[in-house]
């Protein structure tokens, strides 16, 4: 399982780090400790179970180079794309909604784009964590690198908690059962996000060589 985000405290609470929030929640539930592994360019935990080891990964490469981390771990342990679940922020779903799917395009998400390139496949699974859309394409970068309002963060956290109910099925590779569990109940739609204001400005962009978006 991979969660996408940007490293550093300035990004911890930003919408783009929703994938990290998922992996953090899984690690807490499984009582696993994420530790830095230079070989895989990320924070890694291994959890053993009846279906074999489960790897938890938070790439520390910045978003644009997420595939460098995912590809390194997958190649070393010979993990096929269809055995990988990538949790990421999803503009096309409202806060509080979460969806599971396999394959498809990257829809402009730079973390997914790099994973596509490094794996040479789009057949991995995605846990799409709704963060909502600012409504204007030009505002997307500032929006994903900004913090959600309290109501939206609560809705996202509630969605992650519901998705944890499918963790056993996900670990067993029972994706039909996991999908049914995750998609069964939909939360009330929260209010749409307000326009990005000056006091919600995103943190300073990461260096271009390690682009953060």
Please give a handful of descriptors for the protein shown.
disordered C terminus; 213 residues; Rossmann fold; 7 helices; alpha/beta; three-stranded antiparallel beta sheet
Range of strand content? 15-25%
Structural class: alpha/beta
Main sheet specs: 4 strands, mixed
Major β-sheet strand ordering: 1-5-7-6
Instruction: Kindly give the count of domains.
Output: 1
Per the CATH scheme, the topology name is: Rossmann fold
Q: Could you name the ranges where pLDDT drops below 50 across 5 or more consecutive residues?
A: 206-213
The helix tally amounts to 7
Shape: globular
Distance between the termini: 20 Å
Question: What fraction, in percent, of the residue positions are helical?
Answer: 25-40%
Question: What's the rounded overall pLDDT mean?
Answer: 90
Q: How would you summarize this macromolecular structure in one to three sentences?
A:
The protein is an alpha/beta fold. It has helices at residues 18-30, 66-76, 110-119, 140-144, 150-164, 167-172, 175-183; strands at 2-3, 35-37, 42-47, 54-59, 85-90, 98-102, 125-130. The strands form two sheets. It has a four-stranded mixed sheet with strand order 1-5-7-6. A three-stranded antiparallel sheet has the order 2-3-4, with helices on both faces.
Question: Would you kindly provide a written description of the structure presented here, covering whatever features stand out?
Answer:
With 213 residues, the chain is of the alpha/beta class. The chain has one domain: Rossmann fold (3-Layer(aba) Sandwich), CATH 3.40.50. It has seven helices and seven strands. It has helices at residues 18-30, 66-76, 110-119, 140-144, 150-164, 167-172, 175-183; strands spanning 2-3, 35-37, 42-47, 54-59, 85-90, 98-102, 125-130. The strands form two sheets. The protein has a four-stranded mixed beta sheet. The chain has a three-stranded antiparallel beta sheet with strand order 2-3-4, sandwiched between helices. Strand 2 (35-37) and strand 3 form a beta hairpin. The longest helix is centred in the last third of the chain and has 15 residues, at 150-164. The two termini are 20 Å apart.
């Amino acid at each position: 399982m991979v969660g996408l985000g940007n490293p550093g405290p300035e990004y911890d609470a930003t919408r783009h780090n929703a994938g990290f929030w998922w992996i953090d929640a899984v690690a807490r539930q499984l009582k696993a400790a994420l530790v830095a592994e230079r070989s895989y360019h990320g924070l890694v935990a291994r959890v053993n179970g009846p279906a074999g080891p489960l790897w938890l990964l938070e790439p520390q490469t910045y978003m644009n180079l997420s595939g460098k981390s995912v590809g390194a771990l997958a190649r070393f342990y010979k993990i096929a794309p269809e055995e990988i679940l990538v949790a990421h922020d999803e503009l096309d779903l409202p806060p509080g909604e979460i969806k599971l799917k396999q394959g498809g395009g990257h829809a402009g998400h730079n973390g997914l784009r790099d994973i596509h390139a490094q794996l040479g496949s789009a057949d991995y699974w995605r846990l799409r964590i709704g963060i909502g859309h600012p409504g204007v394409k030009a505002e997307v970068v500032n929006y994903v690198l900004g913090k959600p309002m309290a109501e939206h963060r609560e809705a996202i956290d509630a969605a992650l908690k519901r998705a944890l109910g499918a963790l056993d099925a996900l670990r067993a590779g029972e994706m039909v059962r996991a999908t049914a569990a995750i998609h069964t109940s939909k939360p009330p739609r929260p209010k749409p996000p307000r326009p990005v204001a000056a006091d919600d400005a995103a943190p300073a962009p990461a260096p271009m060589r390690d682009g953060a978006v």
